[in-house]
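User
Class, as today's exercise, I want you to study this protein, comparing sequence with structure tokens, and judge whether sequence predicts the tokens.
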Amino acid sequence: MNKIDNFINKISKQIVSEETTNLYFGNTKESEIRRENLRLYLNKMLQIKPTKLLLGEAPGYKGCGITGIAFSSERVLTENQFYKDQGFNCINKHSKLESEISATIVWNELENYPNKPLIWNIFPFHPHTKIDKRVNRTPKKAELEIGTVYLSELLKIYQIDKIIALGRKPESVIRDLGYDFAYVRHPANGGKNKFIEGIKAELR
């Protein structure tokens, strides 16, 4: 088993609270698709050899929560050239593919840069409420601490020189850990233009 398979095996066994879904856990068709999507993505990025990591907060229920890849919705997997026709699979039928605004904005911008950053979330599981999984909850401090374990594992696999924190939550965690980082506005809630400006400054 190689280092990426070991990473996915470890993350798929993480125990989470009833307000959180480990999207890689279990033997359902959906979890198997997410694990394989993540495996394909991480192996592709290993070939690309990224030097920067784009770090979000947590999977959204319309994006990573379905595909298993940070900031990547089913629409992105089927339409963006980075993913298209490369073995990535969707859970929903083609006529009902989910789209996520943040994922669309991120990948529309990343298309402009040949050197793609590795993309990850500081908390790699989907936080929601006890009664509704189709909502996005802010990760708690203890959950963010769990996330740092997996971030550290990724940083052992990839030669990352700088982390780009998308939003204040990942920024606060990275600041405490002492990594070299830059803050960029998250694209959600009217942050698209500032996100684009920040990405240009970091990736050009």
